[in-house]
Amino acid sequence: MKVSVVTTMYRSRSFLAEFYRRALEAVNKLGLTYEFIFVNDGSPDDSLAVALDIQKSDRNVMVIELSRNFGHHKAIMAGLREASGDLTFLVDCDLEEEPELLISFYNKMNESESDVVYGVQEKRKGKFSERFFGSVFYKVFNYFSEQPIPENILMARLMKK
Question: Is 9 in contact with 47 (CB distance < 8 Å)?
Fold first, then answer.
């Protein structure tokens, strides 16, 4: 089984090597084949150069360079378009969400026979205003939604193709 690890880069230079090392270790623990897709979202630092160096040492690494900063969601979509794995693991490379979540998400997916597994923060991070407006967003969204979602969902998720 193949997993596509998709991440975006914006001011990510200082995290990339450790992110790649830890994510690759998680993939190897699961015994999966893999591809990494690094999407450079117009990062002003040398994230692209670091990702290209990683690519030189691993033929399973793809680097996508966007022409400018389009934003996180558009960059994720660019990476998803290129993903060819049976599973896709979306995770930010800034290490705020551990790349090792892949292991627990994979195990949960198999035991629950789910198509998607995502994480939820116990407590929302950020400044007071971010926490407040995040809470308001979820309350309003869930009020109008037939399918409520838990508050404070992580970006990290594992999905079947």
Answer: yes
